[in-house]
Write a structure and sequence with these properties.
By secondary structure, the chain is an alpha+beta fold. It is built from nine helices and ten strands.
Length: about 200
């Protein structure tokens, strides 16, 4: 009975959302839905990029958020429970499930490995899961923006030179070039470029 009521409530919230705006986004409840591009929700609230002024006042990065949502329960579903959305042909991942930080981050590329810019997690369990710290290490402070990579099973990891090297290690030519580049943590665009070339080689 509880499951039926939950389904009815969820359906009612998203039906209400459909009536609010014509700026619709397709919502993915899970990675499995995203993987086969079968979004099960339509969300018709404005989906916008945060401005520099908003970031200055509230912190964070210029990622994306939904606006004009009045229902607290619907806000919780959209901010914390959805896996991601498709909007105007672009794909965005919800940061909250993997980092406990609100907002949606735009994928730079979808491929064998998908990658994006986001904020570093600030809670211990999430930092350990993402590889920001080791499983026995304490919470650490990581500043501002970082790169993330999503593997084929949906696992998300902080993109570091060590992780990037491991992901491309079965491509000897690309690996040799990567080793010569001597990249650091801050070289996120360069690591993205290696992942992009690896994806292209996999096609």
């Amino acid at each position: 009975m509880k499951l039926i009521l939950t389904t009815i409530i969820t359906t009612a919230f998203f039906t209400n959302a459909i009536c609010q705006s014509q700026n619709s986004s397709k919502g993915f409840r899970s990675f499995e839905e995203f993987k086969i591009r079968q979004a099960s929700l339509t969300i018709n609230y404005p989906f916008i990029q945060r401005t520099e002024g908003n970031v200055f006042m509230k912190g964070g990065i210029t990622n994306y958020i939904f606006k004009k949502i009045k229902s607290k329960e619907l806000i919780t579903q959209i901010e914390q429970e959805l896996w991601g959305v498709e909007y105007n042909g672009e794909f965005y991942i919800n940061a909250y499930p993997y980092s406990k930080i609100k907002g949606y981050n735009k994928f730079e590329e979808i491929g064998f490995y998908s990658y994006f810019i986001g904020e570093p997690a600030r809670t211990l369990d999430e930092q350990r899961s993402l590889g920001i710290v080791g499983k026995d290490d304490p919470l650490t402070s990581v500043c501002c923006k970082v790169g993330y990579v999503m593997q084929q099973d949906g696992t998300i990891k902080l993109l570091s030179p060590t992780i990037c090297r491991e992901l491309i290690s079965d491509n000897p030519e690309l690996l040799a070039e990567f080793d010569n580049a001597n990249l650091k943590m801050e070289n996120v665009p360069e690591m993205f470029a290696f992942l992009k070339r690896y994806n292209e080689a996999k096609e």
